[in-house]
Write a structure and sequence with these properties.
With about 230 residues, the chain is α+β, with helices and mostly antiparallel strands. About 25% of the residues lie in helices and about 35% in strands. The protein is globular, with a radius of gyration of 17 Å.
Length: about 230
């Protein structure tokens, strides 16, 4: 059972990553889907997408939930019936979820690929990357920024929100090891909201998570511990 990582971000926020190695049949064992989710999975033409969909239900089980505990709003954002917050991501053979007690959260996993250079102008000012040493470093940082904005978009879940115009990820330095963190803000229709953002890299993938800052000083709570 390839639970790849279990990460405690704070005592109230936990992240789970799965590396998909099993067959669809193996992943289907002990998983009972709601009629809505079964219909969604039946409509997936890609076996990899179906395997990812099922692996996410295994991650939910790690967090103490079954598929019936999950529902989606009209914007397609997932919610837990007990009022806690959840976000979901799938990229190639990795899937991930993040679960939080009281603050809204977002998660994204992306493969680091040079094709991001072609679309970078759509989501970030390119002049900010001229000081980086080489193409590999630029790809790494662009993937992080894209993942951060994707995570924030999942939290905000509002049509018309622009990655380039409305979401700002504050600058950060690349690290060769460990977890990189920064902050970000969304300014949309005169309303501002603020977030803690963290990045992890593994096997040429980047996992990004975002946590909405509430009344507590979240930046002083962060204590990232990989348990697996």
């Amino acid at each position: 059972m390839p639970l790849y990582k279990t990460i405690t971000i704070t005592p109230k926020v936990k992240l789970y990553i799965w590396k998909i190695e099993e067959s669809e049949v193996e992943l289907s064992k002990d998983i009972v889907l709601t009629s809505h989710c079964q219909e969604r999975m039946d409509g997936m033409k890609s076996e990899m997408h179906r395997r990812g969909f099922l692996s996410i239900r295994h991650l939910m089980a790690e967090a103490g939930y079954i598929d019936h505990d999950l529902f989606y709003d009209d914007a397609g954002k997932p919610h837990l019936k007990d009022g806690r917050f959840i976000s979901i991501t799938h990229s190639n053979h990795f899937t991930g979820i993040i679960v939080a007690d009281k603050d809204d959260v977002g998660i994204d996993i992306e493969k680091q690929r040079e094709k991001i250079l072609r679309i970078a102008y759509k989501f970030t000012p390119l002049e900010e990357y001229r000081t980086l040493a080489n193409t590999a470093a630029i790809v790494r940082k662009l993937t992080m920024v894209w993942g951060a904005k994707e995570s924030l978009y999942k939290i905000y879940s509002t049509h018309g929100l622009s990655f380039l115009q409305h979401i700002n990820v504050n600058d950060f330095s690349l690290k060769e090891e460990g977890t990189t963190t920064t902050t970000a803000e969304v300014l949309y229709k005169g309303k501002a909201s603020f977030y803690h953002v963290g990045f992890m890299e593994f096997e040429e993938f980047t996992c990004t998570y975002a946590i909405k800052m509430g009344n507590e000083l979240l930046e002083n709570q962060i204590d990232l511990r990989a348990e697996n």
